[in-house]
Specification:
The structure is a homodimer. In chain A, 24% of the residues lie in helices and 24% in strands. The first copy, chain A, has a single domain, classed as Chalcone isomerase. Chain A is of the alpha+beta class. In chain A, the strands form 2 sheets. In chain A, strands 2-3-4-5-6 form a 5-stranded antiparallel beta sheet. Chain A has 4 helices and 7 strands. The radius of gyration of chain A is 21 Å and the shape is globular. The N and C termini of chain A lie far apart (68 Å). Chains A and B meet through helix 1, strand 2, strand 3 and strand 5 of A and helix 1, strand 2, strand 3 and strand 5 of B. Strand 2 of chain A pairs antiparallel with strand 5 of chain B.
């Protein structure tokens, strides 16, 4: 009987071990001891929300280079949003800016553009204990840096997201698969119109 | 002792059950009995490779609407590619076309565009047992259809991907995080130039 229990324990441990190897990596935001947010090594495997091109925060800027932006969110937060239309604490968005290229095989001579070099990375984290005020905190990564300090509350992102975003401080109006979820769950900000 | 073994078995079963609930869904392509590929319900949670805008397969078409395209690949195949620079059997790409919108909060008056309504979905699957020739098979989903028949080998996708793609039949030249992997692994097609 002892042998049986021991064998069962071994099988159990093996099963748990096997599962933990195949389970998705934890996707909650990580911070350095001095409060910088760490760029998750696997953020490109997070859930993609949308991409834009030439998006600006104000009036058109003539001659401005039109970059792409890609938005990713941590999978755990995404799943909560699908259920509730709202973001849980420890939601983390990673936003990439990438150059737009137009020369390449197949696409030659076309007016199309595709993504190439990384230009910048920013992050938005829902964490009232870190946000200078409210619930959302903003971070900007330097070139090739794997962590980023908190931006001060005077940075434009705080007021712009707070005033213009469709759900909390997030631009769900630009995420075509999430906008219907927010609508269905009644999570759009009162007065938000697109 | 029997009780102990029984309790251990219960814990073991619970642990396996719990893990199977949190484990990622299997991402290999699924087919109907008559050979249509099934649109994975969770493909938006697959790994995003890149987005383009106005990409065409030939010369510029004046006045043609510039749509976005998003490319997703099943996570299991993505992980093999990162290790080897090559795609395993049962790799599946899902390509979305989405309309480009330019009116909306924040982005008002800007030249920027963001993604909105879904226009079409296609799939590319590595499966020599299904491809009409070679290893890669192509599928086109109808409006609101959750499965798609195999396209005949006369469809343009077969020859275009075969002739122009950087790695096997896949346009890795347009996926900025995978192109360096393919280069490092020596997986670019002989003669491929960008």
């Amino acid at each position: 009987m002892k042998k049986y229990a021991f064998a069962l324990a071994l099988i159990c441990a093996a099963a748990i071990g096997l599962n933990s190897q195949t389970a998705p990596p934890a996707s909650a935001p990580q911070f350095t001891p001095d409060g910088k947010v760490v760029l998750p090594k696997d953020y490109r495997e997070w859930v993609f929300l949308s991409a834009g091109v030439g998006m600006t925060y104000g009036a058109a800027e003539a001659g401005r280079q039109q970059n792409f932006d890609n938005v990713f969110v941590n999978p755990a937060a995404y799943r909560v949003f699908l259920q509730t239309g709202r973001w849980p604490d420890h939601t983390m968005f990673v936003v990439e800016q990438r150059a737009a290229s137009s020369e390449g095989t197949v696409n030659k001579g076309s007016v199309g553009r595709y993504q190439s070099d990384l230009i910048s990375i920013g992050a938005e984290v829902k964490d009232p204990s870190r946000a200078p005020e409210g619930e959302w905190a903003y971070f900007s990564f330097g070139k090739n840096s794997d962590n980023a300090p908190l931006l001060p509350k005077t940075a434009a992102c705080y007021s712009c997201h707070s005033q213009n975003a469709a759900v909390e401080n997030t631009f769900v109006q630009f995420y075509p698969t999430l906008l219907p979820v927010a609508r269905a769950k009644g999570a759009l900000k009162p007065g938000f119109k697109q």
